[in-house]
Model the fold of this input.
Amino acid sequence: MTAPTTPYTELGEALGTDFFSVRDQFTDEQWQRFADTRTFVDSEVLPDINDYWERAELPWHLFRRLPELGVVGEDIQGYGAGWSPLALGLVHMELHRGDGSLGTFLGVHAGLAMKAIAMCGSEEQKQRWLPAMSTMDSSARSR
Done:
């Protein structure tokens, strides 16, 4: 008797295609961050995310990996790498491919909270909050 197999195990895996020559629009660093994010999704997110979904829990260990990937606040001039919207959009696309909660978390944390401070905050507020938020350093709350 053969062991049962899980159907559709390849669904969600990146194909590595670039039909529209998108690669040409990015710096090597931006493309490497995209590739690192794709690898992270394929190797760490996809194998575990269904269990978290079934338990209705957030995969906090995966959220904490986002600063290590260098994708938090990277489009904020002066506090990130100054990425283009397209470059950051590809990173968000990869995170959403793995799990919508990862992409949504990054969108709210970096896109809503950090961008609001970057656009409307005083220089003192920017200095206080943005560096710690880009590394997701929770100890900055008490400063």
Remarks:
- The helical segments are 28-45, 49-55, 60-63, 66-69, 85-98, 100-120, 123-134.
- The chain has a mean pLDDT of 85.
- Residues 18 and 24 are 10 Å apart (CA to CA).
- The longest helix spans residues 100-120.
